[in-house]
Amino acid sequence: MPLGIIAKFHRRRHLSYNGSIEPNIVESSITIEMKNNDSKEQCIDPLLEQTVEVSPSILQRFEGILYALLAAFLFTTAVFITKELKVELVDALVLRFLLQTLMLIIYIKLRKNYSLFQQSTRRETSFLLINAISATAGFFAFFLGSHYLPLPDLTTIRYTQIIWTTIIAAIIYCEKPSIPIILAVLLTTVGVVFVAQPKFLFEKISSTNKNKIAKDHHQHLVGLFIALFSSIAMSITLLSNKYLLLKYKTKHSIIVCQFTLLSFCAVVIHLFYKYYFLTDRIQCLKQDFINWRYLCASLVCLLQIIASIFIQKAVKREHPSIFTIVQSSDILFSILLQNIFSSMKSNLLSIVGSILVLTSILIISGYKLITEIKDKKNSVPTITIE
């Protein structure tokens, strides 16, 4: 009798989250049936399993974190250089918002063919309007606050937006405050007090170092309130942005485009109001805009466009809590730039306050990350095989 050979081969491939094919498991089962002349059947069934794991490279694994770090560095560096050039940050942003708006309109209309303003429901349109107004108000206040506060203090108070977001979300959804949230709020409060250093608590410090930071105590308080307003406005932006993305699946490019368009209009209105009522406005315009410092500041602010692109890439690749932690490196970059390259140094209490706010961000983001991981594990369905 001739030998009969039956071969069976199975192969499986899994798709990863980003669409690439990962050959995780290759299973092959070969059954060889042999019959001898005495009609006695011998069966050899070896199971050969070969596991091939293609692990991502270190660069691919930390790609989202690298994008977030680069975005934070570029944004903070642009703001710092503009301040060192003695140019008003709001004035230097005209070219940035103009170019970014034009680039986004071309991308949305010609490449993606999206609609900029026509939405499916009035509710979505209302949330888009809230998002654009709060984002413009928050960033405009941050840029305006750079005139009154040193960059580390301004950035530290701005990033209290994480705490404000948690508090507002807890009020809206009637959530009970947990111990990590209470601890983070306390650390943020103490950190803001250390950064602000009010005169009635830190009179000696306020009479020496703080006089170098601001013209007077009143001007410093104005900067603090502007920075707090910026953080609250940005927290509203985060909540409305999340609602639009989850509820209506709104394209993120449309949200950014509407923000840049409204911001450009706000900057133009600000400049018109600033110079129109001056008697010698022509001379002031020449003095403020027609010089090499303004040209350098405008070109440096274009780095914020690249930072915005990097932020979108980081958001798509990284968990929101991890992205928030990495993005708060703005605080560290601002402290380093201020104390290395500037003649104005941060005092010890300001640095401690920044560290406390940064610690509160780590607590909040880490708590959210652990909670989401636990919820995912609990929501995994169990399959019973009888």
Automatic annotation (TrEMBL):
This is EamA domain-containing protein. The keyword Transmembrane applies. It comes from Rotaria magnacalcarata. Keywords: Membrane, Transmembrane, Transmembrane helix. One of its GO terms (cellular component) is membrane. Residues 64-195 form the EamA domain. It comes from the Eukaryota. InterPro entries: EamA_dom (IPR000620), EmrE-like (IPR037185). The keyword Transmembrane helix applies. The chain crosses the membrane at residues 65-83, 89-108, 128-150, 181-201, 221-241, 253-272, 292-310, 347-367.
